[in-house]
Amino acid sequence: MSGVILACMRDRRRVGFAVATVRSCALRLSPDNIEAHEPQLFQGDGVVRAVVNPVAGVRADDHGVCLGALFEDVDWSTPGATEPDGSYAIVRHDERGIELVTDILGSRALWYVLTDDFLLASTSQRALVMLLGDFQPNAETVAWMVSSGYLGPEIGWDQRARRLGGGVHLRLDRATWQLSSTTRTITYRPVAASYDEHIARLREAVFTACRDVDLSGTTWALPLSGGHDSRGLLVGLLQSGKRPTCVTWGLAASLEQPGNDASVARDLARHFGLEHQYFALDSPTEPMRDVLTRFLIASEGRAEDFSAYTDGMKTWERLFTSGVTTLLRGDTPGVGSGQGRPYDPINDFHCRAMIGRALMVDDYPADHLVRRLGLARQHFPERLRRRPGETLGCYRDRMHNEYKVATMFGALNDPKCAYIEVANPLFHRAFVKAVSELPDELRQWEKGYADMVGTLVPEVPFAKHHAEAQADELQQWHSLSDELLGELSTTPEADTLPPGARAEIVAQLKKPAPPVPAKVRVWRMAKKTVPTRALRLVPPRPHVTTRAVAFHAYMVSRMATILADDARWGCAQTGKANESPVGRSSA
What we know:
The chain has helices at 19-29, 125-132, 139-148, 195-212, 228-239, 261-271, 288-299, 314-321, 348-355, 392-417, 429-436, 440-443, 447-454, 471-474, 478-488, 501-509, 518-529, 532-535, 546-574, and strands at residues 3-9, 40-44, 47-52, 59-61, 64-70, 86-93, 97-102, 111-114, 118-122, 162-163, 168-173, 178-183, 220-223, 245-250, 276-280, 326-328, 421-423. The protein is of the alpha+beta class. A hairpin with a 2-residue loop joins strand 2 (40-44) and strand 3 (47-52). It is globular. The two termini are 31 Å apart.
């Protein structure tokens, strides 16, 4: 992965989970297209632990494991120590307690299951199901995946698994067997300063973050696009004396299209005399089922975003076999949530659903396919709702920080982390502080950050087009359509979709695709010609096509089969007598 698996027995005299079983579990998580590294094992004082596919840069000692990157040289592994500055997932333990710690934004997932007899924790949901030896589907997770394309707030495929949010420090007291936790959050307190002063602070914060990120012992690369985030990171790294190898992926034709992410990234690398590698993601040569299975196993089905993995994970295989161990990403704390630039905050709904991507079944029109599938009721945490007196700009960015990064961006890290490590330098406290002190108008549309980055390399314009195939283009691939129909036309043993949902989706898939609604067509045209400020007056509504819903349902179906197979494997490893390791789905 690199990843981590930890099992702790309440009764320290019991063997519980054998080292050999945990090792085999770690090996089973490794992708099938690489020769993964041997798991790094630890056993002592009732704790069994494995590092999955350990690569250079992973920190491990007798008290813990740290995945990701740190921005300071501090004690990270001693339970009770202050949470370090960094981009990471940490597990640590001693005779008194077990601790799970996530970075301020939750960029790496940590899942756990606590019973009366043991604690299981891992970066992998599949590992938990293997060690539990059975799979108990979560109907609410199914509803979130179908309605939004993501798993929802802090819940997993198995109803017993819980994901830590960002900035969480969870502790299990081994004497009382009780959990306690604290949570660190980002608070927006705008500082009175001039525009130029704010821009200067942002610039200096980027340079500080790139100077402090510890890449010692690693072979690292920078994914370079034509946008703001990776460009700011590139200049910051160069400023600190770090010269990256730059990598970009997308359609082959994108490299020759002016204004495309691919061609702009190449021009930017040339501008600084840097090595630039381009990985083409055109139609796969392998059967579509094999391509999708590899994507689902690597991502554990947490996110719908398949466009960067249409080559059957070959890009990541090549990076791994070439010796790259760490990838730096330019994810940022809330600075206007740039992915939603046309959707500036109109009301609470737009902050949550259109920008935060927490789109629920009840958000769809009454006649939409999603409303006819009998999906379970969804719960949206009170802490993620808009607070009294909170500006829409602050709510938008809090949704980004406390929901979108962990639920969406963290999920997008999983397929990459199946092969190499990922670090986010812009989660540095200095950058988080600089962003939190911006007034709303400089966080709006990433204005302050975009303006700052624009001053760094004015000679190279920003990109206007994506390098990868977009979702509506992928949905036109006949091989993908045939695979969706084939899967949804059958009922596997581990079926977690509601009764009748498959037939309803298949019936709609077989119909000719309806024309895009006129309002949506007008909106798409307007985005290219109408100033962003004007678009605020005509906010969009959810438009999720039948094929998109079918793809979400496909992910649900295939992940249920994968997890059921993991449960059977776990039964065989632990010798449990369980004829049916797949339980009922819980609402």
